[in-house]
Specification:
Glycinamide Ribonucleotide Synthetase, Chain A, domain 4, alpha+beta, four-stranded antiparallel beta sheet, 6 helices, three-stranded antiparallel beta sheet, single chain
Length: about 180
């Protein structure tokens, strides 16, 4: 959440299935396994977590009607083509393979992430990948990143990336060993 042009921490999302976690994992350069094993064993590594500089954006594709009543079983096409776009990775949150078809099986169905040189280019890449996905029974929000980018995301060069980097730095401090 952005309040008065500064990011605010609203909640901790620590499940790998959360969009907030997935966008951070795309920026994580360090191998996460030693940190997970250390957390499980009570001995976190002394290493710092390394992060890529590239901004990352994520857009959720959800079933129409979500978070209320929504239908399941609709066919989704084009995910492989979207996933093949440079800098894009599509996370499956509520999909199921039925024969040769990929179908929706939940409310939040696909999380489309994209990295870029600027936050603006990452947002454009995410929406560009979504344009390759054929799923009439799904919907997306068209305002992702608009507050960080300013009034005209199409023209922004990502000048507000610093705000997002401040949030990432805060999260690193929260989750890094002291």
């Amino acid at each position: 959440m952005i309040d008065q042009d500064a990011p605010k921490l609203v909640e901790y999302n620590v499940r790998f299935g959360d969009p907030e976690c997935q966008v951070l994992m795309r920026r994580m350069e360090s191998d996460i396994l030693p940190f997970l094993a250390g957390a499980a064993n009570g001995h976190l590594p002394n290493d710092d977590v390394s992060w890529r500089d590239d901004p990352c954006a994520l857009v959720v594709m959800a079933s129409k009607g979500y978070p209320d009543k929504y239908d399941k079983g609709s066919t989704i096409k084009g995910v492989d083509a979207a996933d093949a776009c440079p800098g894009v990775e599509v996370f499956h949150a509520g999909t199921q393979q039925k024969g040769d078809a990929l179908v929706a099986s939940g409310g939040r169905v696909l999380n489309v992430t994209a990295t870029g040189d600027t936050l603006s280019s990452a947002v454009r890449s995410a929406y560009g990948a979504i344009d390759m996905i054929a799923w009439p029974e799904g919907f997306i929000r068209s305002d992702i990143g608009h507050r960080a980018l300013g009034p005209s995301p199409q023209d922004s060069q990502g000048a507000s990336v610093a705000s997002m980097d401040r949030l990432a730095t805060l999260l690193v401090r929260i989750f890094s060993p002291s």
